[in-house]
Sequence to fold (185 residues):
Amino acid sequence: MIRALFVCAGLLATALGQAQTPVAAPPAAEPPVAGAPAPAPPAAPKAWSSLSPEQQQVLQNHQGEWNSLPPERQQALAKGSQRWLSMTPQQRSSAQQRFSQWRAMPPEQRQLVRQRWQQYRSLPPERQQQVRESFNRFRQMPPERRMQLRQQWRQMTPEQRHRAVQSMHGAPPPMHGAPPRHVPR
Fold:
């Protein structure tokens, strides 16, 4: 999840550019349509004893507060512990490093990353694919070239950034705010 946030923050900063329109609020819920599946019921509390011993080990810091956590948080923690247990040692080490970087960010920067992630998630699937491909091309570049491109990006005006992105992918949805600072690897 944290890596996805970093990836998307970088993707959005690079691929969407910077414009002046704020992010729109999500649309209001629509009434159910006949024959459509019913919305998912709220999450039910998950008993600590329903977790595997391995999950309990991963989540041991939450054992004392488990019953007071909202069911959605319990579900998220249980799912996260399953993901953690499925990772290789190298993946776990990398995730711990990214989490440390995340915690070291100022709250304002974390909020910006969260907003960029939501903007990315609101893009149509084909646009998300374009953003991922752009980021993968960027990631494959030598470090010197990436630094050069970052420096060029920082020196551009918002209008220049917008035009550069348009020339690469067509007109992107507008984005509000400055791109996040680079987090060294």
